[in-house]
Task: inverse folding
């Protein structure tokens, strides 16, 4: 038998990325040796991929246009799950509308999807995205800032949203990723990234790696309870926290995320035909690309618009969808 | 004229105040020496006052219990961590990383500090360089370290190392410079060459100072632990705190802080013990 | 002479109890008197407790037995009335000579002395006017010792305590300092208690010499070189030639030798 | 018998070796004093060697140019940052934060350190507490600080403060303890009360040591800057480095590191200058 | 006596040039000889350069003029042949008395001396056998000084240099140490050059006394107390009573007074 081929991948500790551990534990692709690192800062992962020190990472789905514009040799290879309620915009007590936010500071991850979420929500509610002050806070820190009354609104994913609402009973939820446009555009969600070198030099391994991921998702859908336990164990999270995000039944979990299987991912990425539930359309990724690019241009994070091919590489997904 | 003692006393009249009041004792005075019992008592008092203040603050509604738990909640979390969640393994991992990285730091910094402190030219060459290096923010090196050393332990150890090694070198050099010239000259006139003087006098004289400096810098090392273990961490106190942060388990975070503080105190005590044991000649010199 | 006048030490004893080690009896049952305006010299072998006794008088060390009083006031702590010159030239390195000398007056708020030029007076008395603005590290040991003396004197203490004040000076400076001290004592009528190791110094300066024996420190003999009345004041050569001087000198040497032969234990 | 000098010289035979070779001079010897010119030269040499080594390493293909840029690329990035991207504003913000936080830290730690160093009982009460506190990882306090102090400057300043204040207190206490008892006793016998002795002797004597300690701890403060400015950052050197990281602009990150190093050196030099100027009595004491 | 034997100092001078300040001439044109086995004493006012001269002989300070040699070998640096006892009791605090005394032999790898019990011999010679395992901080000043002396002697130097070795000892200890030194010198035929501030000590110990004058330091007079031949060795009282002793004593006192009156500048 051949020695298993090593693939180095990383994730930050978030239940939505935990399927890699199932793939590893259950040896779903035996000829791959998955070396999984927990790297809490995705930018560290991207720079590690630049240097060839890492092949694959899971992170939120906004980095494609940035990588293309800044010539970071990293490609998004598939969208892996939309947020279905885990993300929400929470307004501090006393803030009743977008209008009230003018001139206030709001906590978002600058350069992350949540900043776009906030920007779109503001514009939809008649306030220019530039009329608020964006304060760069990671979730963990945003709770404290909101509770302390130092920001007027914040974007949270679970469990931070609930914690913030617990701590501030008079706070209100202004928007949730499970509603309307938000789920239909699947703006908020996660993705899988691979380094250019990995994609170019080891295309088969890239396809197998992706295959391993989706096999893990499939396995989890079959054995949700055990799967959640594996994820909780490897991330060091209490099971309850994992269930809050992934649900208990392996189905679309309202209030958490909707974990795509290989087929759903293929449709979303436009490599296999067929429609998706919850109002998502086939090939939705192009719209996602354009929306995020629009906003990164608005926020000044990228200098120009790039074609999607510059930041998204569909070959591994095509490869696994072929059979 | 020589008078015997008896004469001189009975000669003068009887002194006016045979029983004068004792020296005013003050609760606070300079240069007081406390025995270990009193020190222990005072130390405990200080800690109790702090814990009490913490308790009051936590229950005064400055923040939700969830975000600012009191001492009891943190104790419970700590117990739970050790009993249920195998925290001991994390603690051991962290201690191991600290010890390895710090040993390496000493192994690098000590020769540098010794040579810099002993020889002005080496100091002139290296001090401006290392002096600037000690300002470097260790976290900024994470990308390079990840690239060169991978995501394993060596990268975390290197980070901890970078965090203290330059400080250590500069401060050990400062200690080395304190060696009185008279010791060096004595050794020279006894026939000691440069190498002999360096080891038997300069190094030997500085040893207690080195230990003290190491004690201080080990504390700095511990403060870097959290940063080091955020990156590519699977175990360790810092990694636990990071995980706890993801789900706002502030009680766990504080339990981590408490653990680090207690470990720090323990290491401090260990250092002091070794110090007393290895340097008996520094004890109880009553000379002013 | 008023009964309660001058320095009175009554049965003073001191036992050191350092953490964990055996208690060490440094002094036992020392009783002595020093009338105002007189110079007393403490003499005795090393470790017999001279410094300890001096420190007790200064109020820096608490006696474990007995009582001390100066001019009727019991000693309960350090005070401006008892100035001390330490063996280790302790001039404050961060103050110039002038600032050092003025220090005691400044901190006790003695503005009248400051105004009346006490500082310049004593700087001149110890002949440091040329270096009044120098820092102590620029001075020689003898000069630094003189700074300490001027600083203490400027404070007008009733009792001047000196622990081997001239021990490390070269002979010429030493003689000068001795003359200086005697001149000042005569002029200011200060009482002085000093520790010395030098027999010539003790006999030359002292109105009374207290010889202590060691282990534990006790007052062994009180020697009064009264013959000095017959010698013209300040005539050192005449003094050294006086037969009584030579007799006392030999006597003290013999005392020292006796004490010396009982020594040899770690301090 | 007294002989005049002339006699004694002509008496003996002419000394054998009128011109003996000079004392062996060694390039490296203990206790050498270098003038500032030589120090500057050596310092520059050290730096040049380092930059050259860096250059070689960067171009030796240890890593991609992008992730490990050489000195030239970093210089270019630095120039670009200042010229095009208003980096000066960031630098000024960072300096301001450091200075404010460090002043606060000194304002808190100095009284504590002074009292702890002077009075054994206060030391007994506080040392075990502050001694443990100095192990606390400042980053772990970010959530609480955000809650209490908001996202503005005060939160960053508080973080920088927490990072150094406990170390500072403990180390300033160490300095204070060095005051020789003889100085204190001298002041007491001159009529100084406790307060007077505390200020005019204990504090005054420790002042140079305080400055030295502050110099060392200011360096620690700079290393925390990056951590402080990552949180809710809008400007500052750390924030710039954070932004650069997002785009894997390692040259900018290194430019930030270089900037911090240079600022550090400048502050070091400033401290030394003030030291020389304020403490003239510590200069050139040739006593051994 | 062989020409190149003993210590020969020829026109030695030393000018200190400290950074930025005026050069200070510490010594100028000092020439002297000390034959093997003799004791030379350097006497002179404070700051006249006695220590500087001694340090030059030890090879610790480089002369800026002239040359020095010991038994024909030029002085080019410190060496085991010239042992030095410093004024500041420098016994290594981290070594016990025994380890201190053995230090020189250990570092020079002199195993034969170590084997032959040189260490115990000299510990006994300075009468420290009772405290051989104590650390220096447990000893009194005089004891520590004796440690330094034993350590230097154990090294068998050809020349023993001592800078005010007994300056801070009490008289009895001082006398004992002087006897000890003379005894050792006679037995080991060591040449000794020592600095003293004490005239009695200088005349008692010295075969030759070099009196230096200050500003700058020059050799002013060479005094040979040859009358000592007439006095039984070690009989201090007889010595002090000898008329020639008293003449030299007065003579030196006068020299000192003359030098003293030219002093008064910052060191
Ligand atoms: N703080 C102390 N703790 C313990 N023992 C002490 C202390 N101070 C002094 N002693 C002991 O008390 C005795 C007397 O000491 P003291 O310094 O008074 O002697 P001394 O006569 O001044 O000696 P010297 O002439 O050497 O200065 C000595 O045995 C000394 O070791
Ligand atoms: N390293 C030095 N730098 C500058 N000047 C020095 C140095 N060492 C000594 N001197 C000066 O040289 C002169 C001689 O000093 P030295 O110490 O040799 O005198 P001394 O005769 O030993 O005095 P004392 O009797 O006080 O010990 C003094 O004026 C002194 O200030
Ligand atoms: Mg004494
Ligand atoms: Mg000298």
Result:
């Amino acid at each position: 038998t051949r020695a298993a081929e090593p693939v180095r991948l990383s994730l930050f500790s978030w239940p939505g990325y935990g399927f890699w551990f199932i793939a590893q534990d259950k040896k779903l692709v035996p000829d791959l040796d998955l070396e999984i690192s927990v790297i809490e800062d995705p930018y560290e992962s991207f720079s590690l991929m630049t240097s060839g020190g890492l092949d694959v990472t899971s992170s939120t789905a906004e980095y494609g246009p940035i990588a293309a514009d800044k010539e970071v040799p990293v490609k998004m290879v598939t969208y892996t799950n939309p947020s279905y309620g885990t993300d929400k915009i929470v307004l501090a007590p006393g803030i009743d509308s977008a209008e009230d936010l003018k001139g206030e500071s709001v906590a978002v991850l600058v350069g992350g999807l949540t900043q776009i979420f906030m920007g779109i929500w503001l514009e939809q509610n008649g306030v220019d995205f530039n009329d608020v002050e964006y304060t760069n806070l990671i979730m963990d820190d945003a709770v404290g800032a909101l509770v302390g009354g130092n920001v007027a609104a914040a974007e949270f994913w679970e469990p931070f949203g609930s914690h913030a609402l617990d701590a501030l009973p008079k706070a209100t939820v202004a928007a949730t990723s499970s509603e309307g446009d938000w789920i239909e555009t699947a703006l908020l969600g996660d993705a899988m990234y691979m380094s250019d070198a990995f994609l170019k030099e080891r295309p088969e391994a890239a396809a197998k790696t992706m295959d391993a991921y989706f096999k893990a998702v499939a396995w989890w859908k079959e054995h949700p309870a055990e799967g959640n336990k594996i994820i909780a164990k490897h991330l060091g999270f209490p099971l309850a926290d994992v269930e809050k995000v992934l649900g208990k039944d392996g189905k679309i979990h309202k209030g958490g995320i909707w974990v795509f299987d290989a087929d759903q991912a293929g449709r979303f990425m436009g490599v296999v035909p067929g429609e998706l539930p919850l109002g998502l359309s086939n090939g939705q990724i192009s719209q996602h690309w354009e929306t995020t690019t629009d906003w990164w241009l608005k926020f000044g994070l990228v200098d120009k618009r790039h074609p999607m091919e510059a930041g998204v590489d569909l070959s591994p997904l095509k490869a696994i969808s072929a059979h | 004229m020589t008078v015997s003692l008896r004469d001189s006393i009975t000669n003068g009249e009887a002194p006016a105040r045979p029983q004068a009041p004792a020296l005013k004792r003050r609760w606070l005075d300079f240069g007081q020496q406390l025995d270990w019992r009193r020190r222990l008592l005072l130390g405990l008092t200080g800690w109790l006052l702090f814990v009490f203040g913490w308790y009051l603050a936590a229950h005064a509604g400055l923040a939700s219990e969830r975000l600012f738990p009191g001492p009891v909640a943190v104790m419970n979390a700590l117990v739970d961590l050790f009993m249920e969640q195998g925290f001991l393994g994390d603690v051991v991992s962290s201690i191991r990383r600290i010890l390895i990285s710090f040993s390496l730091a000493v192994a690098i910094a000590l020769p540098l500090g010794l040579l810099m402190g002993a020889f002005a030219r080496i100091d002139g060459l290296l001090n401006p360089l290392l002096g600037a290096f000690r300002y470097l923010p260790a976290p900024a090196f994470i990308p390079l370290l990840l690239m060169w050393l991978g995501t394993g332990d060596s990268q975390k150890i290197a980070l901890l190392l970078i965090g203290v090694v330059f400080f250590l070198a500069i401060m050990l050099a400062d200690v080395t410079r304190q060696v009185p010239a008279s010791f060096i000259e004595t050794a020279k006139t006894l026939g000691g060459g440069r190498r002999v003087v360096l080891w038997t006098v300069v190094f030997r004289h500085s040893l207690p100072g080195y230990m003290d400096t190491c004690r201080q810098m080990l504390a700095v090392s511990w403060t870097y632990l959290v940063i080091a273990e955020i990156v590519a961490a699977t175990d360790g106190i810092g990694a636990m705190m990071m995980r706890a942060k993801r789900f706002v388990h502030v009680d766990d975070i504080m339990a981590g802080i408490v653990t680090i503080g207690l470990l720090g105190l323990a290491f401090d005590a260990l250092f002091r013990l070794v110090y007393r044991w290895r340097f008996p000649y520094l004890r109880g010199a009553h000379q002013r | 002479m008023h009964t309660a006048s001058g320095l009175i030490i009554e049965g003073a004893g001191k036992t050191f109890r350092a953490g964990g080690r055996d208690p060490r009896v440094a002094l036992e049952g020392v009783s002595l008197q020093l009338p105002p305006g007189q110079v007393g010299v403490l003499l005795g072998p090393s470790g017999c407790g001279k410094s300890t006794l001096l420190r007790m008088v200064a109020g820096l060390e608490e006696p474990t037995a007995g009582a001390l009083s100066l001019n009727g006031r019991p000693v309960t702590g350090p005070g401006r009335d008892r100035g001390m010159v330490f063996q280790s030239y302790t001039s404050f390195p961060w103050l110039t000579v002038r600032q050092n000398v003025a220090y005691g007056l400044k901190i006790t708020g003695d503005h009248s002395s400051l105004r009346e030029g006490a500082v310049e007076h004593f700087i001149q008395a110890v002949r440091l006017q040329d270096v009044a603005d120098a820092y102590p590290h620029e001075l020689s040991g003898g000069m630094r010792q003189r700074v300490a003396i001027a600083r203490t004197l400027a404070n007008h203490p009733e009792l001047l305590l000196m622990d081997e004040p001239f021990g490390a000076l070269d002979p010429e400076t030493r003689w000068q300092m001795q003359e200086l001290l005697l001149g000042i004592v005569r002029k200011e009528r200060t009482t002085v208690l000093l520790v010395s190791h030098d027999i010539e110094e003790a006999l030359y300066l002292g109105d009374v010499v207290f010889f202590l024996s060691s282990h534990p420190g006790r007052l062994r003999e009180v020697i009064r070189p009264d013959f000095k009345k017959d010698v013209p004041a300040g005539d050192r050569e005449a003094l050294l030639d006086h037969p009584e001087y030579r007799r006392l000198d030999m006597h003290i040497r013999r005392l020292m030798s006796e004490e010396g032969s009982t020594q040899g234990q770690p301090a």
In short: The longest strand of chain A covers residues 74-84.
